[in-house]
Structures are given as structure tokens and as C-alpha cells.
Specification:
Blueprint: H1 42-45, H2 54-74, H3 88-100, H4 104-112, H5 115-125, H6 129-142, H7 146-153, H8 156-164, H9 171-185, H10 191-200, H11 203-214, H12 218-234, H13 236-243, H14 272-283, H15 288-301, H16 305-312, H17 315-332, H18 342-363, H19 376-399, H20 411-430, H21 433-441, H22 447-457, H23 462-475, H24 477-486
Length: 492
């Protein structure tokens, strides 16, 4: 993983709000660290097979310890919480360590040198947000390799401090902390110990919810979403406990109290579903990949009773979710002027959205906002998705040579089709005559679209298909008769 650098000119001056990383894209990458000095001593001083110097690394880490000692000694009793700028020369040197730590030999050497303990001490005493960010970034790079990740994950004190850093007020530090957590959670050998730590550290849920509900920083929202998504995917019981709001007070991070936040006991509870929706709204126009992450989180929520109830029991939350997801489907995805192949690009976003809408529809058909007479474009979009899927499948069949052993179909497209068919079948079962009539009048139901719907649903959802045909025959007898001619098995 590449680290995300920040313009040195902005170091130590990050705003305590979550409104964006200083520097943003286009930041300068720090130069590579110097090679070993002296050709005759290079072999003994080099780290592994690299040209990086052990002596230089020792000196830099020693200087790092001195920096935080000076910060601690230079702070009076009245300014213990004051944030300090990081000296530019010091920053340049430790950023070289950050770059170096991407090399496996360097990461292994840092592990042997007990660098994790050194960085833990620095994080605990640091009064510079930029210094904390860089230290966590180095740990994040070290964690990219299984052996060194195992070592970091076994450090209980470090694990506790890193989870407390999720309550930090500095966006770059939050980003690097989230990156490190995601790296560890993505390695099966250490993921269980991190899940257990997070389960015990009740402030994690509240701190992540706070970021999702208040940040406008795209990179941070995406990374935090990936952490939450991974956690929920790994441990359903943890997800249930977060849905139920089983969390404690958010603790300030070591040396970095969150000055702009009130004590947790004095603030309203942050429920997971509204926080996920708020983050999704922020990412909708800026990060399709990030939006997909949050849609998958919502889909995971709807796989348990507590999750779907958390969305639909509150009319406000339910309506917000339904409105956002419907608008994404009807306005952003699979549009009438899009080529059918666009379905390949959008399949992994469409599938979770339709799965959530389908689950909500089954649970809350009585709510005004989910009634189909108010959602005619959604029905049109569902049929269009099936049309595009059919065209892509036809082209794929024609492209494959007879007798080819090539895989028959894309699993993601199959999931999307199954989800779309189930949702449409549930809708058609509930459609009253007046709504069908309006769908015909507005062009959502035509000979072509009706044929697509019937062909897609008939084999698995014959009851819903026959109900729809019966209602359609009362509205447009000619259109219904055409369907009976094309699908004679529907005749009584």
C-alpha cells in the first residue's frame, strides 16, 4: 500500500474538524532515503538486499525519540494539549523512513529492531499531528507483510492505542489508522484478534460513526467504510451489537484529546444506519467505489433482523434510505441512453442497492414512500436492468464458439439478475390496476418491456407473473393477449 503524504507546509496545522485532509491530491512525494555511506562498508551496513543504511535508520529513530522528549519537556503545565508543528528537517527524515518501510527487508529489520515499541512510545507522547500520522503510516506499511503484521498484531499495548486513535481529531491520522486496521483485518491469521479487540473497545463504534456522519473527506470516508464493511463481513455478532448500540463512551486518544467534541455521555446516540447513509450521500458524486462500499454495508445490515428494523422502524431513516437508493438507481445508473454493456461496470453497485430496496419493500410496503404508485420510474429501471442483462447475455452466447469450455456467465451478473427478478416479482404481486394503467400510459410498460419482464420471471416467479398478466388484461387487453401468444404456458 502506498502511503498518503501531506504537503510539509501543512504539517502540524490540521484543523480539528473532519472537513478534509490538508494538502489534498498532487502532494509531493518525499525523496528516497540515502544509501549506505562508503562502498567498503556497504555490505555490513545495508539492510537486507537494499542499499538502505542500518546506521542511518538507527540515527533517525533515535532522533525521533529525542523529538518527542523535547516536545514533552518544552510544554508547560498550561499547554499540555497544545499541538506543535514538526520541524521540516525532522519531518523530511522520518518521511524517508515511511517510504523505506514499504520494502519487506526494511519492514523485517524494523520488526527485529523493536521499532513498533519505539513508534508506540512516540505516538503516546507526540504533540504533533503530523508526527503521529507518519508513525502510524510506517506501522501501516510494516503490516503489509504477513510476518511483520503478525508481530504488530501481537502487541497488545499497540493494539489498544491504535483503536483509541480512531477518536483523534486529525483527519490524516484517522486515515492512516484506518488503513492500518484494514490491512490487519484483511489478513486471516491476525483478523480474529483485531475483531476481538474491537469488540472489547466500545469506543470504536462511536468514533467510526462520528466520522461517517460528519466527515466530508472522501479518502477518509472510503477507508473508514472499508473497515466497517470488513468488520461486518468477518463477524455478524459484532455487527448485531453495533446495530443495537452496544458501545461505551468514546475515549480520547493518547496525547490527542478530541477538543472539538463534547463528552460522549452528553451527546445523542449515533445509530449506525443513518451514519452509513450520510457517508453514502457524501460519496455519491465523488467516489463510485466508495458508494459501492457503503451500499454493501447497508446490504449486510439487511441480512439480520436487527439491521432491517434499524432502517425501516424509523420512518425518517427508512424514507431517507429509500429516497437515496431509488434516486441512485433511477438517475445515475443504467439510463435509457446508456449502452447495455454499462451493466458490466455497474453490476457490483446495482446488486447491493436493489437487495436493500427489495428487503425494505417486503418489510414496509405499508409506508407511503415505498408504494409503487409513487415509484413508477423504479419499475422502469428494474425492467431496463433485465433488458440490458438479457442483451449482454445474448452477445456473450453469440461470441462463444460452439463446444467452448469457457465459463458460462459472470457470477456478479447472475447475482444482479437474481436480485432484480426477486424485487420485481414482489412489486408485480402488489401492483393494483390503477398503477398498472399509469405504467402503460407513461410508457414504462410496453410490448417490449412486458416481454422482458415475463421472460425473466416466468420460470421462478410464475404466481407473480400470472397475477401481473391478470391485472394487465383489465388495463390493456391487446398487450396482455400479445404476451399470451408469446408465452402460451401462461394461458389458463
Amino acid at each position: 500500500m502506498e502511503r498518503s503524504g501531506v504537503d510539509p507546509g501543512d504539517s502540524g496545522s490540521s484543523s480539528p474538524s473532519l472537513d478534509g485532509l490538508p494538502g489534498s491530491p498532487g502532494m509531493h512525494r518525499n525523496p528516497s532515503p540515502p544509501p549506505s555511506e562508503g562502498e567498503e562498508s556497504a555490505e555490513g551496513d545495508a539492510i537486507g538486499n537494499t542499499v538502505y543504511s542500518k546506521h542511518w535508520l538507527f540515527s533517525t529513530l533515535t532522533r525521533l525519540i529525542q523529538v518527542v522528549s523535547d516536545q514533552e519537556g518544552g510544554s508547560g503545565a498550561g499547554d499540555s494539549e497544545a499541538q506543535l508543528d514538526l520541524d521540516e528537517e525532522v519531518e523530511s527524515e522520518i518521511c524517508k523512513v515511511w517510504d523505506m518501510s514499504m520494502d519487506q527487508d526494511v519492514a523485517r529489520f524494523l520488526q527485529e529492531f523493536k521499532a513498533a515499541d519505539i513508534l508506540l512510545g512516540v505516538i503516546g507522547k507526540s504533540k504533533s499531528p503530523r508526527l503521529t500520522e507518519i508513525c502510524v503510516g510506517v506501522l501501516g506499511n510494516i503490516a503489509c507483510f504477513p510476518e511483520t503484521c503478525q508481530s504488530i498484531s501481537g502487541n497488545e499495548d499497540l493494539g489498544e492505542v491504535l483503536l483509541l486513535l480512531l477518536g483523534d481529531s486529525d483527519p490524516p491520522t484517522l486515515l492512516e489508522t484506518s488503513r492500518l486496521l484494514l490491512t490487519c483485518l484483511s489478513q486471516p491469521s491476525v483478523a480474529p484478534c483485531w475483531v476481538e479487540r474491537i469488540r472489547q473497545q466500545k469506543s470504536v463504534c462511536e468514533n467510526l460513526c462520528f466520522v461517517m456522519s460528519s466527515s466530508t473527506n472522501v479518502d477518509l470516508l472510503v477507508k473508514v467504510g472499508e473497515v466497517v464493511d470488513k468488520l461486518f463481513d468477518l463477524d455478524e455478532e459484532l455487527m448485531r451489537s453495533w446495530i443495537r448500540g452496544a458501545r461505551g463512551s468514546a475515549a480520547p486518544s493518547p496525547g490527542h484529546p478530541t477538543a472539538d467534541r463534547e463528552p460522549a455521555n452528553d451527546t445523542p446516540a449515533l445509530d449506525i444506519a443513518p451514519c452509513v447513509l450520510e457517508a453514502a450521500k457524501q460519496l455519491r458524486s465523488d467516489s463510485p467505489d466508495g458508494l459501492e462500499v457503503y451500499m454493501h454495508i447497508l446490504q449486510l445490515l439487511t441480512t439480520v433482523d436487527e439491521g432491517i428494523q434499524a432502517i425501516v422502524l424509523s420512518v425518517e431513516v427508512g424514507e431517507e434510505a429509500w429516497s437515496l437508493l431509488c434516486d441512485v438507481v433511477c438517475s445515475d445508473l443504467c439510463q435509457p441512453d446508456d449502452p447495455p454493456i454499462v451493466i458490466h461496470e455497474q453490476k457490483t453497485l446495482l446488486a447491493p442497492i436493489l437487495a436493500v430496496l427489495s428487503a425494505m419493500f417486503v418489510c414496509q410496503a405499508q409506508h407511503d414512500y415505498s408504494k409503487m404508485d409513487k415509484n413508477l420510474p423504479l419499475i422502469g429501471s428494474l425492467i431496463r436492468v433485465l433488458q440490458y442483462l438479457g442483451e449482454c447475455q445474448q452477445r456473450e452466447t453469440e461470441r462463444r464458439e460452439p463446444g467452448s469450455e469457457e465459463e458460462a456467465g459472470d457470477n456478479h451478473l447472475k447475482i444482479l439478475k437474481d436480485t432484480c427478478c426477486e424485487f420485481l416479482a414482489n412489486i408485480l404481486t402488489e401492483l393494483p390496476k390503477d398503477t398498472v394503467s399509469e405504467l402503460v400510459q407513461r410508457g414504462y410498460l410496453s410490448e417490449e418491456t412486458c416481454s422482458t419482464a415475463v421472460q425473466s420471471l416466468l420460470s421462478l416467479y410464475s404466481t407473480a407473473t400470472r397475477h401481473f398478466l391478470a391485472v394487465l388484461s383489465e388495463v390493456d387487453e391487446k398487450l396482455a393477449e400479445g404476451l399470451l401468444k408469446d408465452f402460451p404456458s401462461l394461458r389458463p
